[in-house]
Amino acid sequence: MLVPISKASIVTYTDGAQFAQASQNMSAIDYSYFNAMVSGPGGWNLNYTSSGFTLGTTGNTVQFLGMTNANTYYTNISWGQNNQRDWGPMSHAIIESGQYNSDPNRGLLITLPGAGATAIGLDLMTWLETSPYNGTSYKSGDSVTITLSTGEVLGPILTTAWVSSLTSSSPRSAGLNPTFFGVTSDIPITWIKINSTNSVVATDYFTFGNKVDSTTLAAAPTGDTPEVSTMLLLGTGLLAIRAAKKYRRLEA
C-alpha cells in the first residue's frame, strides 16, 4: 500500500522552459526507451504483472506500473500509428495505464530510484473511446490528478484536447503535443501516481533529478534592466556621496 509522507513545499510548472531553469542534474526516460521495447511502428508490449516495466540505466531505473484496480495490472508500451496513441511532431512509442473504468486505484504509478528526486517533469496525454465503440472513435482532453509520495494531491490538470475525425486520425496529424507538467519539492519524491476518472493516461517522456535551490536562482544573472526602485537607490547614494565631498570642501 502506498502511504504518502508528510507534505512538502512544492512548485508546479506547465512550461517546460521554466521547469528546466528550476531543475538540474536531470535524467530522462524518453520515447527512445519505449521504442526499444516494441518491434517497431505498430508494435506493442503488454505486461499484466505487478512488476510493470523498469527502464533506465543501471542504478538509475524508473518503474512504470499501470493499474486497473488495487490488484489488477495493465501496463502497455505501444507505438501507435494514425490513432489515439500517435502524438507529437513524430510518431513514437508511449507507455499507458489500464483501460478506463471508475476504480479509484486505476492509473499509472511511477516509482523513482533510490531516495527519489526533488524535480520531476513529464508529458501527459489521455484518451477515451467514444460512440460507436468500434475502435475507431476517440477523444482526448480529460483531466488528471497526480498524487505525490510527499502527500500532495495535484489537479485537476487538463490535458490536450483532440477528437478523431476523417481529417484527423491522430493528435499528431492535428499538430498536437502532449501536456507538460513539472514539479519541484523540498522533500524528495519517491513515487507519483497519475489518475484520470474516465480516460487512459499515458506518457512518452519522464525526467527526474534535483531542483535548483532558491539562492542559486536568485544569484543567476538575468540580463534584465534594473528596476526603477534600484535606480532610485543608486541615484540617492551617488547624491549622498557628492554632498559629503562638498561638505568636506566647505569645512576646509
* Unreliable parts: 222-252
Shape verdict: globular
Mean pLDDT: 85
Measured distance between first and last alpha carbons: 83 Å
- Residues in helices, as a percent range: 10-25%
The percentage of residues in β strands lies in: 35-45%
Number of helices: 4
Overall number of structural domains = 1
DSSP summary, beta strand count? 18
Descriptive labels:
252 residues; alpha+beta; 7-stranded antiparallel sheet; 16% helix
Describe the structure.
- This protein is of the alpha+beta class and 252 residues long.
- Helix content is 16%, strand content 40%.
- The chain is built from four helices and 18 strands.
- The chain has helices at residues 16-21, 31-35, 214-219, 228-251, and strands at residues 10-13, 23-30, 44-47, 53-57, 60-69, 72-73, 75-78, 94-96, 107-111, 117-129, 138-140, 143-148, 153-158, 162-163, 179-189, 191-195, 200-203, 205-211.
- Mean pLDDT is 85; it is low at 222-252.
